[in-house]
Design brief:
about 15% strand; Aspartate Aminotransferase, domain 1; binds pyridoxal-5'-phosphate; seven-stranded mixed sheet; four-stranded antiparallel sheet; 15 strands; about 40% helix; 2 domains; 14 helices; Aspartate Aminotransferase, domain 2; alpha/beta
């Protein structure tokens, strides 16, 4: 509408904004969001509500009058609890001047990008990758380049070709974005790969933005996936993003954290003040409760539920002729390859309209030239087992009819 009325060249709105479009997951979801007979497996969240002890801590904070501005980088008890969380899950000592609570993890990604990107710079994303990330990079004015993980159907693993990653970087590359465990693939980067990436990036002045929001959702029994915080030096240009959203079922709280180099602690305060003056105060008190031993117990419970979802999905995939996967090492997604399907967006729309199950199209996680991702759909298996089972049965019938 607007663009019909005002020619683009006269609009003061930046082209990076005018060019924005809802990503493929959002477009599919808009077809039937909230419709009761539709089984939604499309978003990255469990159907469990946030546990009461976390909600109660936030309610108490409101009752106790914690309704004012706080330290822009987060209240001291929360930053201390995050430091202790790093100690017990990563065995890493991350000082308080390296920890900022900006609000949601998405804002942590944005602030990391704000730290490093200038016009004309680029960010290299290991893909397939959650689209909000590369859209956020584009909004900052960055060009986005992609380095696709490769399928290894023999070992049933996604693999990162480090040479390809490094070849994708050029003189204008300011950051490499890596999510491990990955969304949608569940791939996990090894400590050796992390060290090699650091060695490549250090002399070139390239930052690493390491998204570890699924860090504790791993299936090998470890307390956390390998973290860049375990291999980087305190002053390395490494930004580690984490979130309360997934392991504590707190997606609606919009709270996470960023570990960054100590030498920009003061600047992170100013950034926070310019972005949102810090995270919501009572949500921060909920997050303090999440990091308690009760929170650890809830995380174990949620992980068990994810394990059940993983098993249901594995049995489903094993029973199918046309669906394959590389089992995820972490996170809570099945990234399912549907043989013979070439248009994941069209298929996902058909699933909504006819089969009444919501999935995310593989094309949403990749640039248009990556046609290989168009043979995939993503489901979130962190769901009630019966509902997941029903959703997968609906999917099975639709694939049979393809
Ligand atoms: C890889 C990745 N990073 C970040 C986020 C966002 O986390 P938050 O809800 O804290 O913004 C998500 C959510 O799906 C994600 O998949």
């Amino acid at each position: 509408m607007f663009m019909d009325a005002i020619p683009r060249r006269l609009s003061p709105v930046r082209p990076a904004i005018l060019d924005l479009e809802p990503n493929g997951i959002a477009k599919v979801a808009m077809l039937a969001l909230g419709e009761p007979d539709l089984l939604p497996l499309w978003f990255g969240e469990t159907d469990l509500k946030t546990p009461d002890f976390i909600c109660n801590a936030a309610k108490k904070a409101l009752d106790d009058g914690f309704t004012f501005y706080t330290h822009p980088r987060g209240i001291a008890p929360l930053r201390e609890a995050i430091r202790d969380f790093h100690r017990r899950t990563l065995n890493a000592e991350i000082s308080l001047d390296r920890i900022t609570v900006p609000g949601a993890a998405m804002l942590a990604v944005i602030e990391a990008l704000q730290c490093v990107i200038e016009a004309g710079d680029n960010v290299v994303c290991v893909s397939p990758v959650w689209p909000n990330i590369f859209q956020a990079a584009q909004i900052t004015g960055a060009d986005v380049k992609f380095c696709r993980l490769q399928e290894d159907w023999t070992a049933l693993r996604w693999r990162l070709d480090l040479d390809k990653l490094f070849d994708t970087c050029d003189a204008r590359t300011k950051a490499i974005f890596i999510a491990s465990p990955g969304n949608p693939t569940g791939w996990i980067m090894s400590p050796e790969e992390q060290r090699a990436a650091l060695e490549f990036c250090r002399p070139r002045g390239i930052a690493i933005i390491s998204d570890e929001v699924y860090g504790t959702l791993v299936y090998d029994g470890a307390p956390h996936a390998p973290s860049f915080l375990q291999v980087a030096e305190p002053d390395d240009a490494v930004f580690v993003v984490n979130s309360f959203s997934k392991p504590w079922a707190m997606t609606g709280w919009r709270i996470g954290w960023l570990a960054h180099p100590a030498y920009i602690a003061e600047q992170m305060s100013v950034l926070a003040m310019s972005n949102n003056t810090g995270a919501t105060t009572f949500a921060q008190w909920g997050a303090v409760a999440a990091l308690s031993s009760q929170g650890d117990a809830f995380r174990s419970f949620l992980l068990e539920r994810c394990r059940e979802g993983y098993e249901i999905t594995r049995r489903f995939v094993d029973s199918q002729n046309r669906i394959r996967w590389m089992p995820p090492q972490g996170a809570f997604y099945g990234f399912l390859h549907v043989d013979g399907m070439r248009d994941s967006f069209g298929f996902a729309c058909d699933l909504v309209r006819n089969a009444r199950v919501g999935v995310a199209p593989g094309s949403a996680f990749a640039p248009p030239e990556d046609t290989a991702s168009d043979s995939y759909i993503r489901i979130c298996f962190a769901q009630n087992p019966e509902r997941l089972q029903t959703g997968l049965e609906r999917l099975s019938a639709a694939v049979a009819a393809l």
